[in-house]
Each structure stands twice: as structure tokens, then as C-alpha cells.
Amino acid sequence: MIIRQKYLDQLLAFRDRDLVKVVTGVRRCGKSTLLDMMREHLAREGVSRERLLTFKMESMEFDGLDYRGLYQLVRKRTEGIVHPYLFFDELQEIEGWERAINSLHVDLDCDMYITGSNAYLLSSELATLLSGRYVEVEMLPLVFSEFLDFQGASLSSRAAAGMDVFELPDGSLSTAVGLFDHYRRYGGLPYLSLGTLDGAVHKAYCRSLYETVVIRDILERDRRRGRRQLTSPDLLERTCRFLADNIGNENSVNSIAGALRADGVEAANSTVDAYMGALDEAYLFYPVRRYDIKGKDLLKTGGKRYIVDTGIRNYLQGYRDSDQGRVFENMVYLQLRYEGFEVSVGKLRSGEVDFVASGSDGRAYIQVTEDMTDSATMERELRPLRAIRDAYPKFVIAARGSYPREVDGIRILGVADFFLHGRPLLV
User: DSSP letters of 260-271?
Assistant: First the structure.
């Protein structure tokens, strides 16, 4: 088990506090394993195993169980145990689960951890019932530095000066760019990132994940909730593929519904909006709002969407090598989100900045480009940043090419600079 220290540290920071820890994220991003990491950490610290209780809601053991049954089952298993640690995996499988969790939180002296693969987990009654007595740990698939850990890659002493070269477990060497290209193509789903990987394995795994999320999680959950808004697997899949094909593009519900209708699909705007919302709830896509840099305000229109994992996107798009610039932009977005920034698209009077990354320690403006060795392309990328008059740091992140470290106060970062040493450069 390879420790994902960032997320484990977040759980440990709230250990034994009067807060329910809720780990959210797309299926198979590592949430269940994170609970295993936490449980093993506690055991190593001397917490007895009988105090570490795990409830995996997808097990047949809990089939047909409602929230009352869950409450009674937990109370029975914790009888006589002083301060148990309770781990609930994929809790949204239990109808009315939030009532059981609220009652357990009130009635038991315990420390509670929950995972869920749908944002409805936190938009349900939980927020109201717990009245702010929970903390969310948002989990993503592996970022590039974690991917290197899963690959067993370590910086090589055989590298030439100034080069990032990694040694793999079989003794072979690879540049950071070479490993990054592999990561860009196949993404960062943890199971797929252990050892070698070929296209057939990736395709089969992503198909299984996609069908689980789209068919079971989205359509079945909508049916169980009695909403019956999402009744067409075909329309849901078409909407998903459209969004995947248009990551980083500005899209409205109206434009997406219009594009689907032009393709012969009956799709009312309200219906498309419901399907888009369901895909967002399943953490497959992240909507990103626009930020008016001059007015210092978030705008209600003109947002974009990015996909949770570029490997899933490549699976949906047939592993085409086109649109690499937008795929790279998507990867920068995910890295910024992993680092804890609030990310928006920057609006200028004329034009835009790819990202405005805001954190407790300030803000940064970021342009993203695949390659800007051409002078006209460099000027195009630098122009929006030059137009911003405040003193916050400005960056261009470039996937390829060699550039000056700084131009007119704008710092230019390559793959290794940003993805392996990112946050210290953005404060």
C-alpha cells in the first residue's frame, strides 16, 4: 500500500475531533484505500484492532439495510468498546444514511470516517443534520508526483546536470517529460498506475469504471431517489462524451443542447442541464466559473468544465493525440485543485487568462500552453498577463520547449517545475 501522505495528513489533522470526516471523489480514486491507510496508521500507534470497525456498504452484508438497521448494527458491534473508530465506505448506498450517521454522532463517543462517490452525499440532509460538524477531504486521482511514487520512479544520480531523469525499478531511465507523456495518456487512477500498463488493460478498466459510474451510480441512484429525471442512458453518454471532447471550452447548457439536437438527439435544455449536473455530482467533471479580474467578482455565465482524469478522457475519445493543449490545460487545473487552490477562469476586458488560482496566501494568474517556441505564440500567451496591473504573481506553464525563466516579470515553468515543485512557486 503506497501512502498518499497529503490525504492521510488531512485525516490525521482532524483525528478525534468532534467532526465527521467525509472523503469524497470519483470512484476508484483511492478513497477506500485511504480509510485502510488511516486504520493501519491508528493500529501502528497502538489503537487495538477491536476499536477499528469497517463497514463496506457495497457488501452483501448490508444489502437491503435501511438507516435504522445500520444504526442498530453499529450500536451492537460497538457495545462495550471505548471510543471506537468507525469507517463507512460508500455510505450513499444506504437510503437515509445521514439519519443513522447523525444519531451515531450524537449517541456514541466515537471517531467517524465516511467515503462517498457522489456530491449528493454532502448536498443531502447531512449538512443540515450535522450543522457544520463535518469536514470534507476531497480526493483526486494521482497527480504527477504521486504517479511517480506508484511507478517506483526516483531521481537518478546518472542524470546530466540540470535534467530531471528518473530511474525505474527495472533499472531503466526515463526523463520527466517521457514519464509525463505516459501519465498524460493514461491518467492517474491508482490501480492502473502500479507498474507497467498497456492500452488494452487501460481501456478495459476505464470501460468498467465508466459503466459503473454512468449506469449504476447515476441512473440507478436517480431512480432510487424517485426523481426520474435521468431516464436515457444514450443521452447521458452523449452528454458525457460531449463534455469530455470539449474540456477547457466555454459551453452553456443552451449550446450543448443545441449541438446534441443538431446531431439528431432530442434534448431539451432542462434535460441536458440535469444530465450535466449528474455527471458533476459523480465527480467526473468539475465546472469552473469565470472571474472578472477587474471587477474582482465571480460571474454567473461563461464557465468551463474539466474532466477528473485525462486517462478517462482519452478512453472516451478513442486515445486520439489531438487537442493536447487542452488536455495539458486540464492537467494544470487538476494540479492546482490538488494543491488546494480555488480555481477560476480569468476574464479581461478583451480576452481571458486560463486560470486564476486563489488561496489563503494570495492569488496567481496562469497561462497554459503546449509549446510557445514560436515568437508569435509566446507573445499571445504573455499578452493577457501583461494586461493585468496588480502585483500578484504571473506564470506561463509550458509542456514543451526551452524558455527564459522570466519575461517582463512573468515566470515561465516547465513540466518538472510546476508539477513536481508547484505550490512554493505560486505563493
Answer: HHHTT----HHH
Average pLDDT of span 339-350: 91
* pLDDT digit string, tens, across residues 18-59: 999 999 999 999 999 999 999 999 999 999 999 999 999 888
Distances (CA, A) of 350 to 294, 385, 387, 393: 11, 12, 10, 20
Separation CA 179–CA 167 (nearest Å)? 11
How big is the chain, counted in residues? 427
344 close to 298: Cβ distance less than 8 angstroms: yes
Cβ 206 vs Cβ 27: under 8 Å = no
The 173-175 sheet, strands edge to edge: 154-155, 165-167, 173-175
CA-based nearest residue to 135, from 55, 17, 28: 17
The whole-number pLDDT of residue 320 equals 86
Bridge partners (DSSP) listed for residue 397 = 368, 413
Rounded to two decimals, the pTM is 0.93
Per-residue pLDDT band at 251 (split at 50, 70, 90)? confident
140-171 pLDDT tens trace:
999 999 999 999 998 887 655 556 788 888 88
In order of 21, 34, 303, 353, the CA distances from 308 in angstroms are: 22, 18, 16, 21
Distance between CA 127 and CA 237 in Å, rounded? 30
CA dist 402 → 35, 62, 319, 371, 412 (Å): 42, 56, 27, 9, 10
